[in-house]
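Deviation from plan, reported transparently: adenosine monophosphate complex.
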Amino acid sequence: MPVRIARAAAIALAVSAILALSLYAARDRGWRQAGAPGQTEKFSTEFFGTFDTVVSFTAYAKDASEFERYLEAVRDEMTRLHQQFDIYNDYEGISNIKAVNEAAGMAPVKVSPEIIGMLETAKEAYADTGGAVNAALGPVLSVWHGYRERATENSADARVPSYAELSSASAHTSCDDIEIDRGDSTVRLRYPDMRLDVGAIAKGFAVQRAVERARAAGLKSGILNAGGNVAVIGLPPDGREAWSIGVQAPGGGAGSEVIDILSLTGGSAVTSGNYQRYFTADGVRYHHIIDPATLYPAKGVKAVTVLHPDSARADALSTAAFILPYAEARDLMAKHGAEAVWIFEDGRMEMTDGYRRLSKAGKGAGRAVM
Ligand code: AMP
Ligand code: MG
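Because the crystal trials were delayed, the predicted structure below was used instead.
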């Protein structure tokens, strides 16, 4: 997974725009909260070092050692998958996405079943979105990455790549040229100039697997939040009918205003936003979600949050819903039984009916008041 320095200096707009899902639970920074005798207690903690984000984990357990067990399962899975999906760093004994990229055009690379599974998800998303979500867009994303880094180091140096540069980088960017051999557990990129960037789906895939590991370890009730990629497990054991997920204003670091509350009884909520990674040149913001049709940042949406039972699917769909024209995005959500809310650059907001039912703002006003 891209290990990039998050430089989303939040421009907190007073009006419109959702983002960064946060959890009320995660606000209870204390190690534990007492429950009724004989019952489970709530434990919360955070860790860093995976997927370029803070991971908050809240779980109900009978004691600290049980919580530790769940935490270990989650942290171990997130770390393992981070290393597998990294495109910038090597890890001893691990044949990761970076290794696949480096072997482009050469012999197939032996990889883990997780890489095979994640890349199959990526190819599916590519087909499903008419190429809008494209894990083979690496060469183009790498051009943007370079310009973003330069601009961030020295804002006087902020420049925008020319279409010629982007277009020549896009020569081999089809997911159809990712050759997967499930039986041999190998991957090969057909052309030497191909590069994978799995940033649009890897974190969701990892969150889903981490939740499954924690469940297998016995967790019945909890929430995992990897930088706005939220998954809930079971229900709160205190009789509440749903988890309350606070939706923060854009850019939303800790302490930023909660502008909506979602009631989730299961599954995942994943956000894509134009303020998560970007640079500014000549007063224009160039963010990190690139429309493969234009090779420039997708226009029109400021933030979108997608709800789906599977976190990997929700992650792919949130990137898709950010890029695709609204009508197509809406059809895609319906096709997958996903719910979503869109905040457009002009402040307009749209939500699916299912999202509206789960959202306090949507219920109250028909349009969220922000
Ligand atoms: P997300 O925040 O899940 O919407 O994913 C954004 C990340 O996905 C970016 O930081 C890039 O690493 C990568 N990305 C950007 N544009 C695309 C695209 N059109 N298809 C696939 N991945 C992309
Ligand atoms: Mg995504």
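The domain at 3-85+202-358 is CATH 3.10.520.10 (T-fold). We consider this an acceptable substitute for the interim report.
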